[in-house]
Amino acid sequence: MNKFKRTLVTTALPYANGPVHIGHLAGVYVPADIYVRYLRLKNEDVVLIGGSDEHGVPITLKAKNEGVSPQDIVDRYHGIIKKSFEDFGISFDIYSRTTNKTHYDTASEFFKTLYDKGEFIEKETEQYYDEEAGQFLADRYITGTCPHCKSEGAYGDQCEACGTSLNATDLINPKSMISGSVPVLRKTKHWYLPLDKHEPFLKKWILEEHKEWKPNVYGQCKSWLDMGLQPRAVSRDLDWGVPVPVEGAEGKVLYVWFDAPIGYISATKELTPEWEKYWKDPGTRMIHFIGKDNIVFHCIVFPSMLKAEGSYILPDNVPANEFLNLEGDKISTSRNWAVWLHEYLEDFKDKQDVLRYVLTANAPEAKDNDFTWKDFQARNNNELVAILGNFVNRALVLTQKYYDGVVPAAGELTDYDKETLEAIPEIVKKTEEALDHFKFREAVKEAMNLARLGNKYLADSEPWKLAKTDPERVKAIMNIALQITANLAILMEPFLPFTAKKMQKMINFEGKEWDVCGKKELLEAGHKINKPELLFEKIEDDEIQAQLDRLAKTKEDNDAAAKEAAPAKENISFDDFTKMDIRIGTILEAEKVAKTKKLLKLLIDTGIDKRTVVSGIAEYFTPEEIMGKQVSILVNLAPRKIRGIESQGMILMAEDANGELIFVSPEKNIKPGSEIR
Question: How much is the mean pLDDT over the chain?
């Protein structure tokens, strides 16, 4: 029995500097959504809080590379991310962002409270500064050799090889990821949260009072605590973020790790004026859904912040997942080695639940797992189609055929009938137990066992053979098959919300809650069901091969990009160069060219006119993210027809070492038509 009055569920805030991929979905958002949907079905008071993390150096760097403002970057990607979550049924009560006023006010107030209580250490230290880039370096933009395990490529805040939390000054042979130069140490003043002060509390709270946490979470926390905690800076030298709200802090903002988790609080404030009952009432249970790279922040740092403030509750559980790989290789946004959610829905229209199911059945709960397209196809065809879809379709089609869609009375039951009915509440109970303990792989397996039970029952009973010889027996069989279907329509809702809704509509059984699940007589005799439809369809080999070919092309491009730069082309005369008329243009409209994967049709304001240009960048950019962008365009290139569209010019792109295309854009907005000389 749940001892809490309500549950607050938070999900890690994705960085708003790019779209989201299957790794994000598998690690954080699908598990969180399953859990919240389950609690809602149980009619519990629960809220799901999410939002975009819109501060930090990665965003400023992307803005600098594209010649736009950081606000332009976060506005673009916040919209893309939010839509992807909506498309996949991630049922946030609010999906907010950390650049809004409520968040700025909340984060400033939180800092000021700790500052006034004397919870920070103020000190002048030496930090790494990139002289070529002219800026202090975020820890994540310094790499070097880990002082603990001696692995190369450790970051300034953490070594991903051994999991050790680091300070940038701990690294051996540090190097700036911005310019590649060796950074120098410069003095700067900052405020620090003394984590060492909270170490005794954390050891008792985690190691003694939360032994039920997942082994990967508990073990990582114990490792950090055993090594001893150090003060951690809460401010940065940066001009993008929440300004440090004290005198003498000009040019400094709150460190993104301090600022971002406060986003959970500010989002809840936006959601409801009663936000304090979710954050300050001991009757609330708080659950953080995150990936393993965020464990230190949610189990050690954020609880220390909340404890220091004094009026907030602490998380009850942090069921962090490990990482999802793709076809045997680590997902990498810079190498485009990912399955992007918005692209998935273009290739597999209306198949959100297929991906949700595969990612849940193969969730990286205890160790890193691998997503493969062949496994995706097999789980769809052999499980969703052949087991769940096949059973439901047979049950409903036979009911329509024999009884015109009316549920028949069961009549006398055999021992096998009774045994089958008795198995329903047992399966529901096992599914509940798995969900209560955040074991979502096990939970979806148990839920599918109900469909397996139904399939076996129909196959064993063979009502289609008895229709003429024993009609009373057929009525009992079909009644039981329909009771299993009705239970499935509720049991599957947390995992497959789109499919469950479709099932509920087909059997005229909508708006039911979890407490009916497991009952043996959900559909009364005489109940009318609606016309059945197929729940799933087979995914063919050519569809999977297209995905594998795309990844092969990505790998090929990455391998080619990793090689030495191509030699310079033959010299041209100055007169030849001056013939090129290159100007700054602004993209007004963008849309995909039908039946192509690479082409976008752009309408560009060149300052001279507004013209159409066809560009092969659709695999790198969505139409939404480039509208309003300023580009360099060769305006006096002879027009040519591409896929029946007359293209009047060419936009200039740069290709980096990883094969990523980057616009050649001005550092700041400039009037369209400005010439490049």
Answer: 92
Query: Considering only CA atoms, which of 235, 298, 260 is closest in space to residue 97?
Result: 260
Three-state secondary structure string covering 141-158: HEEEECCCCCCCCEECCE
For residues 202 and 225, the answer to whether their CB atoms sit within 8 Å is yes
Determine the Cα–Cα distance for residues 194 and 92; give it in Å rounded to an integer: 34
Domain with CATH 3.40.50.620 in the chain: 6-120+194-321
Cα separation, 633 vs 608, in Å, equals: 12
Could you give the CA distance from residue 334 to residue 337 in angstroms, rounded to a whole number? 8
What is the location of CATH 1.10.730.10 in the chain? Answer: 371-516
**Which CATH architecture is the domain 574-663 placed in?**
Beta Barrel (2.40)
Give the model confidence (pLDDT) of 603-648 as tens digits.
999 999 999 999 988 878 888 778 788 999 999 998 988 888 999 9
* Residues in Cβ contact with 196 at an 8 Å cutoff, skipping those fewer than 6 apart: 228, 229, 230, 231
CATH number for the domain formed by residue range(s) 6-120+194-321 = 3.40.50.620
pTM of the entire structure? 0.80
Stretch(es) of the chain classified as CATH 2.40.50.140: 574-663
H helices present in 352-404, as ranges: 352-361, 373-379, 390-403
Q: Are 427 and 449 in contact (CB under 8 A)?
A: yes
Classify residue 513 as exposed, middle or buried by CB count within 10 Å of its CB (0-12, 13-18, 19+).
Answer: exposed
Region 371-516: CATH code: 1.10.730.10
Q: What are phi and psi of 648, to 5 degrees?
A: -115, 65
